[in-house]
Amino acid sequence: MMSHGGFQSSRQNFDFGPWTVTAAKNHIMKSKDIERLSEEMNMPSLPEMLFGDNVLRIQHADGYGIEFNAIDSLKRVNNMSDSVKVACAQEWQQSRADSEHSKEVVRPYDWTYTTDYKGTLIGEEALMKVTSTDERIDLERLKVREQIKFFQEVLLFEDELHDHGVSTISVKIRVMPTSFFVLMRFFLRVDGVMIRVNDTRLYHEAGTSFMLREFSMRESGLDELKFQKSEADLDYIEKRLKLDFINTASESGCTAQENPVAMLEHLRAIKARHAALSSQVQELASEQRQTMDSLRANMEQAVEVLSQLQNTAQLKEPQDAALPGQSS
User: 93-97, 135-139, 191-195: lowest mean pLDDT where?
Assistant: First the structure.
């Protein structure tokens, strides 16, 4: 869970040509406001940490644009049926039945708060329209190193699903000299069940009159991810360290020969060691399966031999043996 201790509200603006990027971060909504909003949305409960006043807005000088906010993202949640049918869903809902935000009998709804929200258009509709296109965001171009002139991440909501996982949505933006890129991600983890990720990507290049927006949905059962998790965690840590180092270095004037580089090199060594150990584990698992198959085959063969011996013994037993003292 993200830590929000000592949080202070903030609002930052950054100009990119005719566009103004605004990132506003505020405190969690008050309980009375959450209760009112819950009734308006006809939902028995809302996320534990709801940042109703947080927003990332990209607005043109003529007034139109797009923004990302928590309230509109929750409007895309199914308030009539469950999204994930697991045993803990009913337990979680019952735990909320007596809360101050739920005055009626708890009915089925999407307790994971899954949303396919892609942003909210602002300004006159005629000035900004959504149309289909075959053009795609050039991800390779985004990998080209450019100076990051502005970066912000805004959390919209988060919920720990009554200790059964996590459901969260946040949006981040980076502005380079030639373009800006937005990624809004809804992330869901239901412990022991599944992981779901819904991504909205937005890209605009200076000198063009349009933005490209792409939406994707991915979902996997946890069994499919068990062997990938450790390596993915190491990849994430490495990338996060790189980003933090770049940001810190640009702000404080640190040189590229200082400690963070050594940390990254050490992390690469750890990753290599992890890969080697993973390979050994897979070999051991393969040998274990082969051993178990051999034991099973030998056991089956022994049972078959024992059965044959028992049948042979029964054939050799006398059929009408006379008891002592009896004449035949």
Answer: 93-97
pLDDT of 103: 43
**pLDDT for residue 127:** 86
267, 260, 201, 110: CA torsion to nearest 10: 60
Contacts of 86 (CB under 8 A, 6+ apart): 164, 190, 193
What is the layout of strands, in order, in the sheet containing 10-16? Answer: 10-16, 19-25, 55-60, 65-69, 120-122
Burial of 198 (0-12, 13-18, 19+ CB in 10 A): buried
Structure-token match 């082969």, residue found: 290
Instruction: Check residue 95 and give its pLDDT.
Output: 57
DSSP 8-state assignment for residue 258: S
Residues 6 or more apart in contact with residue 146 via CB below 8 angstroms: 176, 177, 178
Give the number of other CB atoms < 10 A from CB of residue 188. 24
Query: What does the alpha-carbon distance between residue 80 and residue 212 come to, in Å, rounded to a whole number?
Result: 32
End-to-end CA distance of the chain: 91
| Weakest mean pLDDT among 17-21, 42-46, 246-250, 294-298 | 246-250
DSSP state of 251: H
Count of CB atoms situated within 10 Å of the CB of 66? 22
Give residue for tokens 């990051």: 148
pLDDT at 167: 95
**286-307 burial, b if ≥16 CB within 10 A, otherwise e?**
eeeeeeeeeeeeeeeeeeeeee
